[in-house]
Amino acid sequence: MTNVQVDENGLKKTPMYDYYVEKGCKITDFGGWGLPIQITKIAEEHEAVRNAVGLFDASHMGEVRVKSGKMNAYDWWNGLITNDVHKATYNGKAQYTAVCKEDGGMLDDLIYYRRNDDEFVATPNGSNREKIVQWMHDHNQDGQVEITDETYDWGLIAVQGPNAEALLARITDTDLKEIEYYSYKQDQVVAGIERVQISRTGYTGEEGFELYIPSEHMVDIWKKLVEEGQDLGVKECALGARDTLRLEAGLPLYGNDFDESVNPIAGGIAFAVPKAKEADYIGKEAIAAYRAGDKKEASRGFKIDGKQIARHGMEVKSQDGEVIGVVTSGTKSPSLGYPLGFVRVNSNFKVGDKVIIDIRGKEIEAELTKKDWLSASK
Question: Residues at the annotated binding site for substrate?
Answer without folding.
Answer: 210
